[in-house]
What we know:
The structure is a homodimer. Chain A is α/β, with parallel strands linked by helices. Chain A is built from 11 helices and 20 strands.
Amino acid sequence: MSIIVQKFGGSSVANAERIQRVAKRVGETAAAGNQVVVIVSAMGDTTDDLIALARQLTQNPSRREMDMLLATGEQQSIALLAMALNEMGYAAISLTGPQAGYHTDGIFAKAKILEIAGERVKQELDNGNIVVVAGFQGIDAIGDINTLGRGGSDTSAVAMAVALKADVCEIFTDVDGVYTADPRVVKKAWKMPQVSYDEMLEMAAMGALVLQPRSVEIAKQYGIKLHVRSSFNYSEGTIVLEEVTMNENIEKEYVVIGVAHDMNVLKVNIFDVPDQPGIASKIFSALAKEKVNVDMIVQAGKQSEYQEISFTTGRDDQDKVKKVLDGLGLINYNLDGTVAKISIVGAGMITNPGVAAKMFRILADKGCNIEMISTSEIKVSCIVAQEYVKDAAVALHTAFGLDAE
Amino acid sequence: MSIIVQKFGGSSVANAERIQRVAKRVGETAAAGNQVVVIVSAMGDTTDDLIALARQLTQNPSRREMDMLLATGEQQSIALLAMALNEMGYAAISLTGPQAGYHTDGIFAKAKILEIAGERVKQELDNGNIVVVAGFQGIDAIGDINTLGRGGSDTSAVAMAVALKADVCEIFTDVDGVYTADPRVVKKAWKMPQVSYDEMLEMAAMGALVLQPRSVEIAKQYGIKLHVRSSFNYSEGTIVLEEVTMNENIEKEYVVIGVAHDMNVLKVNIFDVPDQPGIASKIFSALAKEKVNVDMIVQAGKQSEYQEISFTTGRDDQDKVKKVLDGLGLINYNLDGTVAKISIVGAGMITNPGVAAKMFRILADKGCNIEMISTSEIKVSCIVAQEYVKDAAVALHTAFGLDAE
């Protein structure tokens, strides 16, 4: 008998009809002879609605009280899903995060899971129940409710899979897997049957937020097989695992497994930054305090007693960035919202020198000027003018041998 | 420093504006130098909305899952009220029923409180916090959430007052206290400054559901002073306590302290009931199973081998009553929805013989025929034709010396 953890997001349980569809899917998995634990998020817009309600009372809600409030969303989903399963004749029981044994570190709004005391879950599985667990939440040492932050239900699911030594953790989404590129832009993109944890992490960091990066890290650490698949159909999705194996779809070893692009980029260049210790820390701490999500950071080599620091963020953070830079007395800077990011990802890069060079050459061949570069061991990202991005994605997909036959 | 428990019902916290009003009231009580614990219900229609959502999935929801679902309503209220208090500058913290230490007996949907482990609440009070607690809920021995049933928040409040040895438990409602009669009918009715627990219990049983009867029982058992008052104004309400003391408003000892009437009465007469042991048990068990709330029950002395059993219930139970009686093969019965109930209540009756006789005489003087009578030590209720009820209420109020000067 296999143990399967399934995770359904908020849009999958947005109303009674969708909850019934999820119940059917979950029930079938159990009826096929598996022990099933289901992790669910809050229904549709519930979280946003609760936040709006809180905002009517205060602009600065205590994080503790916000967690107390938001945790109710998942608690409603689990009760309703358990009812739907019961109605279809499946034995099922719901458990809140605290009841399911998620012990967290007491950091409200972005808690980390310390451990899962999974006795109750195991006992309910042994009783023949499908166990429906509230994602996104846990309990700290003094008995307070913590939430894991947005998207935390992925992490809840993977952590439960670790605790139960589950055979697979299925993440149901509204896409049917991980693609080599955005199929709306690159016509020859295809769904990858497998990707490695590291590749998935880079894809996530690139904006393809199919999975919460933290959940992939935990899966990698404990070797939990993830299966990213559609909640709308029964086709196989993408398996995320340590080492991608050969199979009928992967006849050759790919060096690059995916091309991603992101149009929502604000490029910030700060000139005349005094070349003194601590200045970068000061800038990025101030940005973090304003909750500006900084993506790429590039600091050019020093040419004088002043230097240039560049970074990228989302375009909607433009006002906050201005406020922070003005506040720090940095007057000579430039904001550019006409750029986009194009990236290639692949674990094979590590052992294949020249991958970045090849990417730069292909962009140059298209007449495309590169404004910023950032690399990791398995990823190269370039900031270019928006107008080149789509062509570049198609060209890179072809050049790295990714086009479907 | 006094310890005060305050309870606000669902309509008092139905939206952000009302939550702010409650916060102001609670904050003022704390600012006056008291330690305050606030018990709140779910916002307005939340509970009904959640029930409707569940009904979309199943007609027979598991009680366990229903409790899991409904408990979220109070959890939302406490978080929001704590936020509102914080925003006004008051230190406050919310606690769910389980966090506040309500240990219940595991009977879903109508649990009883076994004990309150009040350490966390005491600790938060000592930390200078106003403690906002979710009413209506507790946790059982295996960690499942139980609810106390509708109106259970009154019981939550009184039980917390017991656990903390509170000086008073204030119940805020949309009326400003307990009246000698319904002021809409009896113009000379007045708000009683004090009533005894027993009188309050009889008033509650008579349909004046200002307080959940169970909460009054607990208050009586532990001698907790209750204060029923309006959430809309600051006037003194009605104090419920063991022995009513003399004060400026009560210059004389009243024998009867209240006249109540209830227009929503269905009178059921069952004729030709075989005079054999167990028949009454069979009838009323079957009615209970259909959740028919039976009020008065009268069985006349036997005249033959058949006898007559009469009882009253609410008019909306008419269909269920028919179904039960037909199901038991009782064919000779009569349902009458044209009657009403008029009652007098007063602890003084015990030591004043002739109170019931006086009531019957006053009704007779009005030309009003009595169809059923039911008495307790401190209450007499009569079923009469609806048309007489309002006149009778006024006449009884005058005859028992209750009219305001």
